[in-house]
Amino acid sequence: MFKQIKNFFKRVFSNLYKTAKKFIEEALGMVVHVVIAQLKDIAIKVVEELENTDLTDAEKREEAFRQIKEYAVLKQIEVKSSIIYLVIELALQYIKQHVQ
């Protein structure tokens, strides 16, 4: 069952990613594609978990940033803050469009 859920999220995020692909290719380059792909699953998980907390939106964003940054460091993924915030925004849009 978890595999089906995982595959569902991959397909949906893939569709969202395709929509933003042109912008990402022009503005950020190929390295960013790799980093986004590495962080997308953790970003969706973290954002979903924080969605039902009593934190303010700003606190949720900062906590999501902290958790994703911690994951990136643990996995030795070098990533700039702006990319982490982009991944958080993509995860938020994904959740708004597909989970509600």
Give a structural overview.
The protein has 100 residues and is mainly α. 84% of the residues lie in helices and 0% in strands. The longest helix has 26 residues, at 2-27.
Number of strands: 0
Share in β-strands: under 5%
What is the element string, with H for helices and E for strands?
HHHH
Largest sheet: none
Helix content: over 70%
User: How far is it from the N-terminal to the C-terminal residue, by CA?
Assistant: 20 Å
- Broad structural category: mainly alpha
Rg result: 13 Å
Question: How much is the average pLDDT?
Answer: 84
Runs in which pLDDT lies below 50 for 5 or more consecutive residues are none
Counting DSSP H or I runs of 4 or more residues, the number of helices is 4
How many individual domains? 1
Shape summary: globular
Write the layout of secondary structure elements.
Layout: H1 2-27, H2 30-51, H3 57-74, H4 81-98
Helix pairs in contact: 1-2, 1-4, 2-3, 2-4, 3-4
In short:
The chain is mostly helical.
Give me some keywords for this one.
84% helix; 4 helices; mainly alpha; 0% strand; 100 residues
